[in-house]
């Protein structure tokens, strides 16, 4: 497979999901293990980059090298999207991308609001992360008069007091919480009555999705940093042991 230098993710073209009548994909009611679901975004990113480089077919060993997933594990994962690999040919990149994109909900044009126009909220508002994954940011909200009225991306920052009415009137699917709130009760009060379908939570306090009966992804960046420092510490200790 010919390798080309790829552009940074925020410069990649948005690829439309092709409609392929004979494509066999997993059924919506088919049970896919969580471990496999967690690897699908990685496959999605690699396949999108391949399409941007006009690579139309790829072997399991080549895709394994790109994703960092073993070839045997990759083949097991992709069996959930049956009929996408052919012996002696490999995988049809466009079909595989379509099947995984469909399962991940890319292309369904979900709408989102960002709550919190601080550094993180600004960075997310100005990135192409959302639109490249089929999510469109329709509004940004904050409590501070210093940022209300500012333009972030294609949106003007509104007062958070307008959040509920805006979400209901605009049929918003997802709330992205980028506020330094450490109290779950405050977060629940903030999004209650918004009619949301899901929450992407960057705040220091986790939200128990059982309390609101919609999917919640709690993402604590500090936890990720601590995991990294732990790994560095472990490797340093091993290096010191080897030197002694």
CATH architecture of the largest domain: 3-Layer(aba) Sandwich
Based on CA atoms alone, the radius of gyration comes out at 21 Å
Per DSSP, what share of the residues sits in E-state strands of 2 or more residues?
15-25%
Q: Which regions have little confidence, pLDDT < 50, spanning 5+ residues?
A: 1-29
Q: Tell me roughly what share of residues is in helical segments.
A: 25-40%
Straight-line distance between termini: 44 Å
CATH homologous superfamily classification of the largest domain: NAD(P)-binding Rossmann-like Domain
**Given the helix and strand composition, which structural class is it?**
alpha/beta
- Would you give the CATH topology of the largest domain? Rossmann fold
Report the sheet with the most strands, covering strand number, pairing sense and barrel closure: 7 strands, mixed
Number of domains: 2
CATH class value of the largest domain: Alpha Beta
Order of helices and strands: HEHHEEHEHEEEHEHEEH
* Overall morphology: globular
């Amino acid at each position: 497979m010919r390798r080309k230098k790829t552009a940074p993710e925020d410069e990649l073209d948005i690829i439309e999901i092709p409609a392929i009548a004979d494509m066999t994909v997993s059924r919506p009611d088919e049970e896919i293990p969580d471990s496999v679901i967690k690897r699908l975004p990685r496959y999605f990113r690699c396949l999108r980059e391949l399409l941007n480089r006009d690579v139309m077919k790829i072997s399991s060993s080549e895709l394994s090298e790109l994703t960092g997933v073993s070839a045997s594990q990759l083949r097991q994962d992709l069996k959930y999207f049956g009929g996408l690999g052919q012996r002696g040919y490999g995988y049809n990149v466009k079909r595989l991308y379509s099947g995984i994109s469909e399962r991940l909900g890319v292309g369904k044009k979900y709408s989102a609001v960002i709550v919190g126009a601080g550094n993180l909220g600004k960075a997310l508002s100005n990135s192409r992360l959302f639109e490249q994954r089929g999510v469109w940011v329709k509004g940004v909200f904050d409590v501070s008069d210093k940022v209300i009225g500012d333009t972030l991306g294609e949106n003007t920052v509104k007062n958070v007091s307008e959040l509920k009415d805006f979400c209901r009137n605009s049929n918003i699917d997802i709330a992205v919480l980028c506020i330094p709130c450490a109290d779950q009760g405050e977060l629940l009060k903030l999004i209650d009555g918004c009619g949301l379908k899901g929450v992407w939570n960057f705040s220091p306090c986790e939200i128990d999705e059982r309390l609101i009966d919609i999917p919640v992804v709690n993402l604590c960046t500090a936890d990720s940093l601590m995991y990294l420092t732990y790994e560095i510490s472990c490797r340093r200790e091993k290096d010191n042991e080897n030197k002694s």
